[in-house]
Design a protein that fits this description.
The protein is of the alpha+beta class. The protein has one domain: (Glycosyl)asparaginase (Glutamine Phosphoribosylpyrophosphate, subunit 1, domain 1). Helix 1 runs antiparallel to helix 2. The radius of gyration is 18 Å and the shape is globular. The relative contact order is 0.20. Bound molecules: N-hydroxy-L-asparagine. N-hydroxy-L-asparagine binds next to strand 9. The site of N-hydroxy-L-asparagine has 14 residues, from strand 9.
């Protein structure tokens, strides 16, 4: 199906160099000519995930159903080593997953540090729909999942176990080594009725401390949706996304009139400005959609890509960035 569609490869010029002055207005990304449905997700595996989400959107389905279907693809893919099954474990060898969802009504659900469940995003959705709470963690989240009929599984693949054992030889705990160490999927969508939803799901930073929770399951950090304004999601070193209240801030900046790229840019620049000594070691990247169907992303460091799919076709874009 997708082969009939036009593949749009968009490469935007990198802002490069650490010497870039703060608050340079970023380019506004191409607005959609047809402000119909759209799905946007982080990294290149977002292409496959978007394809699944698009099946829902093109049938005039709900954005929430689209993102929930889409993220299940990398969650179940053992080759994606930082989401779901096959995700690299924590320093104790345990695969602990973080996920959250948010819908067009402002409802939200989240699970943090859940183990043995292949699709934490599906559990997060049930936390939203079936409990009076927003967040369940650890054992409580697992118990809830089992009560809801989820199967307990071993998520540590032979490959991820071997990678952990190799890491143990030095046990050199460097959560700042972002280059081979991350790939959360954050997915946001607008459906044909103009409603927005999002989902974010990850195994978090490889070899993190047991019990560490990143930004991905935190509403307002890894994901935020306001149906009046837009939606945003994040990837990268979660500690820095949390410290700037990343996605909630982006949505508020869009409310004040900034384009999605400008809003992502401003929040990235807050990270750069507050933590200048960290810039060379970390990544933080955001994508956003506004209510008019404009979309885009911005990253602290070169290398971030995001995938998009709308009535004009699907594609992968190189994000603009602050530093090489
Ligand atoms: C985290 N934000 O746990 C996640 C990791 C990530 O790309 O996004 N990696 O901090």
């Amino acid at each position: 199906m997708t082969s009939r569609r036009k593949f749009i490869q968009q490469t935007t010029a990198g802002a490069a160099a650490l010497t870039i002055p703060f608050n340079v207005p970023a380019k506004t990304f191409r607005p959609m000519t047809d402000p119909g449905a759209l799905v946007l997700s982080t990294w290149n595996f977002g292409l496959k995930a978007n394809e699944e989400a698009w099946k829902v959107l093109k049938a005039d389905g709900r954005a929430l159903d689209a993102v929930c279907a889409g993220v299940k693809i990398p969650e179940a893919d053992p080759k994606v080593t930082s989401v779901g099954y096959g995700g690299l474990p924590d320093r104790d060898g345990r695969v602990t997953l973080d996920s959250c969802v948010m819908d067009e009504f402002g409802n939200a659900g989240s699970v943090c540090a859940i183990e043995h469940i292949m699709h934490p995003s599906s559990v997060a959705r049930l936390v939203m729909e079936k409990t009076p709470h927003v967040i369940l963690v650890g054992e409580g989240a697992l118990q809830f999942a089992i009560d809801q009929g989820f199967k307990k599984e071993n998520l540590l693949t032979p490959e991820s176990e071997q990678a952990w054992k190799n890491w143990l030889k030095t046990g050199d705990y460097k959560p700042i080594n972002w280059e081979n160490n991350h790939d959360t999927i954050g997915m946001i969508a607008i459906d044909s009725k103009g409603n927005l939803s999002g989902c974010c799901t990850t195994s978090g930073l490889a070899y993190k401390m047991h019990g560490r929770v990143g930004d991905s399951p935190i509403i307002g950090a890894g994901l935020f949706v306001d149906n009046e304004v837009g939606a945003a999601t994040a990837t990268g070193n979660g500690e820095y996304v949390i410290k700037v209240a990343g996605t909630a801030m982006i949505v508020e900046l869009m409310r004040q009139g900034k384009s999605p790229v400008e809003a992502c840019h401003e929040v990235v620049m807050r990270v750069a400005k507050k933590f200048p000594d960290k810039v060379k070691d970390i990544q933080t990247a955001f994508i956003a959609i506004n209510k008019h169907g404009e979309y885009g992303g911005y990253a602290l460091r070169k290398g971030f890509q995001y995938a998009h799919y709308n009535t004009e076709g699907f594609g992968l874009s190189d994000s603009e960035f602050f530093a090489e």
